[in-house]
Amino acid sequence: MAADRKEWQNPDEILDQLKIKEGWSVVDLGCGPGFFTVPLSKRVGKNGKVFAVDSDSVMLHHLESNLQNTAFAKSIVEMIQADVCASGIPSGCADMVLFANLLHDLDNQKIFFDEVTRMLSEDGRIVDIDWQRMNTNALGPPLDRRLSENQSRIIIRENGYRIINALNAGPYHYGFICERDRSKPK
Predict the structure, then answer these.
(1) Residues 86-139: pLDDT tens digits?
(2) How far is it, in rounded angstroms, from Cα 73 to Cα 170?
(3) What pLDDT, in 10s, does the model give residues 2-38?
(4) 61 FRET partner, CA 20 to 30 A, in 79, 120, 153, 158?
(5) What is the pLDDT of residue 21?
(6) Which of 85, 152, 153 is nearest to 119 (CA)?
(7) Each residue of 161-180: pLDDT tens digit?
(8) What are phi and psi of 30, to 5 degrees?
(9) Coil, strand or helix at 167
(10) How is the beta sheet containing 49-54 ordered, strand by strand?
């Protein structure tokens, strides 16, 4: 799947837009087999950290296999089998929290964003990447499960964040870089 996915969604082109710095701590929520985790580990470098969270042990097993092909990534990536709404990641440790193809599947976005905010550093950013609400010939979830860009914007805003930049996330996805909305009371 990952090789096929790279034909229509290039993780490096997406990550280039995020301006990740060496030494950062990044959380990949719902990491799956590591489509973003592996290239993130290269960007944060030997002094950085990537927390890869997924509730599915099979996905984490695939991630572990994918990390075998990367020289130092295994020492940088901490795999965590947990619900994305209760990750156990230390509070305030993340410079960036990325979640791809996840927001549309969450039952309780408020609990999710509370967890994201808890783990994010004061000046940290979040990145949301999700499926466009369009027919894509069997790629992705059913149309009725997807969130439109506008629906995602509303969810992000209602949970205390503001979009600072839109991402080019490929022909079937949209994406946003967000920061805390400091104009709203805590």
Answers:
(1) 999 999 999 999 999 999 989 899 999 999 999 999 999 999 999 998 866 667
(2) 25
(3) 557 766 778 999 999 999 999 999 999 999 999 999 9
(4) 120
(5) 95
(6) 85
(7) 999 999 999 888 999 999 99
(8) 70, 45
(9) strand
(10) 77-81, 49-54, 25-29, 94-100, 120-131, 173-180, 161-167
Six-digit token string for 27: 């959380």
Question: Residue 152 CA to chain centroid, in angstroms?
Answer: 14
Q: Two tokens at 85? A: 């709404």
The torsion angles phi and psi of 64, rounded to 5 degrees, stand at: -60, -45
Pair of tokens at residue 143: 């149309």
- What tokens were used for 68? 């075998």
Rounded CA gap, 95 and 121, in Å? 6
Instruction: Please report the domains of the chain, with CATH numbers, ordered by start residue.
Output: 2-180 (3.40.50.150)
Which amino acid does the sequence have at 173? H
Tokens of 176: 């946003």
Q: Decide if 178 contacts 162 (C-beta within 8 A).
A: yes
Comparing 67-76, 82-91, 152-161, which segment has the lowest mean pLDDT?
Answer: 67-76
Alpha carbon distance 46, 141 (integer Å)? 36
Give Cα separations from 29 to 46, 60, 82, 84, 137 (angstroms).
Answer: 21, 12, 10, 6, 26
If pLDDT is split at 50, 70 and 90, which confidence band does 1 have? very low
